[in-house]
Amino acid sequence: MAVNANDLRKGMAILHNTDVCVVLEVTHRTPGNLRAFVQAILRSIKTGKSMDVRFASTEKVETVPLNSEKMEFSYKSGDDYVFVNPESFEEVTVNPAMIGDAKNFLVENGTVTMTFVEERVVEIELPASVILTVTDAPEGLKGDSANNVQKLITLETGVQISAPLFIKTGEKIKVDTRSGKYMERA
User: Fold this and answer.
1) Which domains, from first to last, does the chain contain?
2) What is the predicted pLDDT for the residue at 142?
3) Is residue 7 left, alpha or beta, with left meaning phi > 0 and alpha meaning psi from -120 to 50?
């Protein structure tokens, strides 16, 4: 299906120079004495490289259908991450570059939403928050209870975040996956 370049949105998959690409960013520009255009950053699915592309605002762009599925994180195999579809039990292996910072919030059987284009993973979306176990929380110092004092704690995934002084080792806490911040006890 072809759409105008003006209708491009972040997350869409398009056909560009015979390569399927995912739109990472879109900016509409209208310089004073020139015609309007659309500046887009695309990531090639084949190579994984990003490119900056300029389209005329009325140019037709061929879109590629996306398929999203709920998947569960199963285990880590070497550097790769293995996810399982809970309905079909089909396994999908994802490289660490595609996972990015999501690795800080992946726990066994944790659910994510994966977007596929032509059977290849193009995006992994975490839930808004996850519940993780605290593996190391140093004791707060006596008398160190001034306004909103925080300490650095380590979670089961190895990531360190700031949390209130009353959090102890072994407790479960809720963490915002977008900001990486402590939300509350679970």
Assistant:
1) 2-64 (2.30.30.30), 67-125 (2.40.50.140), 129-185 (2.40.50.140)
2) 59
3) alpha
